[in-house]
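Backbone geometry:
***
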Amino acid sequence: MKNEEWIALLRGVPEDVHPALVLQLLNGTEVCLDTVVEYLPQYFAFRGRMGGTTDEGRAFFIPWQQILFIRWEGLHKLAEIQRLCGVTVTATSSFLENEALGISTSPPPAPTPQDSVPAQVIETSTATPNPNALMDTKSILEKIRAMRAGTTQPAPRPRGK
């Protein structure tokens, strides 16, 4: 991309989105954008941080030719991306996004008598858990803790506590 194209792209991004932008440079370095200082013809001046660090508020002067791409962090709906790109959001695009995500836009069908849960299933689902299964879990955890601590045998625990 040309310098002017990068400038036009970034000028079109709302300022509240800037902290979610990450610049990927040609050398593989990631730089997280915070606040734009100035769009100069040869380079980009901004405040931000290096990717993977918590050192905020650093000043960067990145030549436009060094930017490989810009990533918008987070999950975004298709309509958000379209708005950012200046594309008119239509009902069709929202429907297509919902279909791609497996979201049904029609109301669910009314339940039928075959869909109801039998009383036997309800009764067994409220049963108390098997106490032996709980003890097995505790003994497994004791063995793991003992192995991590370097001992071969875990200390015996009183039953029922």
Q: What stands out?
A: The helical segments are 3-11, 78-84, 91-101, 119-125, 131-149. The beta strands are 21-25, 30-39, 43-50, 58-63, 67-72.
